[in-house]
Design a protein that fits this description.
This protein is of the alpha+beta class. It has two domains: about 110 residues, no CATH class; about 120 residues, no CATH class. About 40% of the residues lie in helices and about 15% in strands. A five-stranded antiparallel β-sheet has the order 1-2-3-4-7. Strands 5-6 form a two-stranded antiparallel ribbon. The longest helix is centred in the last third of the chain and has 39 residues. It is flat. Bound molecules: zinc ion.
Length: about 250
């Protein structure tokens, strides 16, 4: 079976299942229980979809400028319920995540809580900016993540590029490809502009930068913790089986 872990980092997995931002359950079913339209401007309608988690019952809101359709799956005394109508052969979760430019709660939950809060907040803000096409805001957040990550890890370097190089050498356990990706994008986009001008990042660059950054954060803060947890549970199972063992491999 192919690796499906990328589905964990989405808001919507498909038209029936999402990753609940409230109870933090992954792959739990949800129901659209309400939808309204309003005018963003006099020429631009916006639609809000209200979604309830079928497990914890908490409700979230999602805004889109796209004309998403739903069909009714329930009416009557229990209230109305809808489901998103999606084309066959379309990745419904990817389509929905792409369509919604703003959600409350945000997709903050997709980053493990072991990642320091300041970094999670910046990444969430960067993603929100990017979804709304606020590229300057998204770029500023991405730079701030590298800056804060540098501070937390005692990286050296006066600028973005040097801090990434320093982080790369500090965290040799992280796949260097992620840091190299960040450096390459910086280099290909900053050739023409002034040293302190970073107007070169477009949405396509930012998407890759944020993806690389979230992988870096996962590798630095989550992977070692998971490994430690696994080690602890194996050791405790072992001590149940071999209670007398006190680190003497030749015993028994
Ligand atoms: Zn829930």
């Amino acid at each position: 079976m192919t690796d499906q872990s990328h589905l964990d980092s989405r808001y919507f997995v498909d038209e029936r299942v999402y990753n609940c931002p409230f109870c933090n359950r992954r792959h739990v079913s949800y129901t659209v229980y309400n939808l309204v339209s309003f005018d963003w401007t006099d020429t631009k309608p916006c639609r809000a979809f209200y979604v309830a988690c079928d497990s914890c019952g908490n409700k979230s809101m999602h805004l889109t400028f796209e004309d998403l359709s739903v069909y009714e799956i329930q009416s009557g005394r229990g209230g109305r319920a809808y489901r998103f109508q999606t084309e066959k052969d379309v990745d419904a979760g990817a389509m929905l995540d792409q369509a919604f430019f703003y959600s409350v709660p945000t997709s903050f939950f997709v980053l493990d809580e072991r990642v320091p809060r300041v970094l999670r907040e910046l990444l969430t803000e960067a993603e929100g900016c990017l979804k709304s096409n606020f590229l300057t805001g998204a770029s500023a957040c991405a730079r701030k993540i590298v800056y804060e990550l540098g501070v937390l890890n005692e990286a050296i370097g006066e600028n973005y590029e040097d801090r990434i190089k320093s982080l790369k050498s500090i965290h040799s356990e992280v796949d260097p490809e992620f840091f190299d990706t960040l450096l390459t994008i910086q280099q290909v986009t900053s050739t023409k502009v002034h040293e302190n001008s970073y107007d070169g990042w477009e949405a396509k660059h930012l998407r890759v930068i944020l993806l690389a950054l979230s992988d870096v954060l996962h590798e630095i803060y989550v992977v070692p913790a998971l490994r430690a947890d696994r080690r602890k549970s194996i050791l405790s199972l072992k001590s149940e089986l071999v209670p007398e063992s006190k680190g003497n491999p030749s015993a028994g």
